[in-house]
Write a structure and sequence with these properties.
Helix content is 11%, strand content 42%. With 270 residues, it is mainly beta. It has an eight-stranded antiparallel β-barrel with strand order 8-9-10-11-12-13-14-15. Strands 1-7-6-3 form a four-stranded mixed β-sheet, with no helix packed on it. A three-stranded antiparallel β-sheet has the order 2-5-4, with no helix packed on it. The protein is elongated and about 75 Å long.
Amino acid sequence: MIKLDIPYRIWIALFTFIFLMGCKKEEQKTFDFILPTNTMEAPLNSQSYLPIVRGNSDYSIKIENSDIATADFMGGGSLNFGSIIISGKKKGETIMSITDKVTGTVEEVKLKVTDFYLPLVISNSNHPALLQNMRFYLVNNEKKDAFFFLEKDGKLVLQQKGSYEFLSEEESGTKIPYLILRYTSDKNGHFTGTTESSVIHKFDLRGSNGHVYELFRLAFGVNWGLDPVPGTKSSPITRMQIIMKEAGSNFGVQAYLDSSNWKDYIPSDI
């Protein structure tokens, strides 16, 4: 009988190799490729995220019409399966095809790039029309639409539709930033349901959080000219406060950026 005299260190090396090979096989486990939806809306000139429910972190992404949108994979995130980052470039519809290179599975997503809506919530107000808890939306489209909603019975109900614009005016060598809102109102400043000519309401934005001006510049391409008067520095976790004081009156409004899903509020027929 032949005796195999294998040194102890070689046994350790052998078992370590077997163990590592087993771990490697476990690491190479593949997953089914699953997306949460096959339809998606993305705002113009902004980024949206399509989370991957399950997959293998190696993808090929193709957009049928690259003039409408572009997309890239971003690893990490929920359950480490990552997300697809979609950048809206032009309004329209196209098809995005995502291929999981590991499994060969292809998923198609019907992609629609829409107008960019800036959603705001009024946190404090003594204004006759812009009431506390009202939500209003500024739309980056040709008409510069503005929508004003109040919550009733757990749903947001459209109160008025108007328009907006931004401007800055020089006063004593300083550029003052303004938000102009146009909507129909009565002599007391309340919304009216008529189709009369809209009334101009001019709001001084001084006192707003300093990042507000940059937000409007990025979202709407606002050219303020000289830097507006900056707001007081605040903690990064503080809400981005927008301070609006209507010119020629004592009416003031405080609002903040709404982080909820604003798309749930916008009726499809407006």
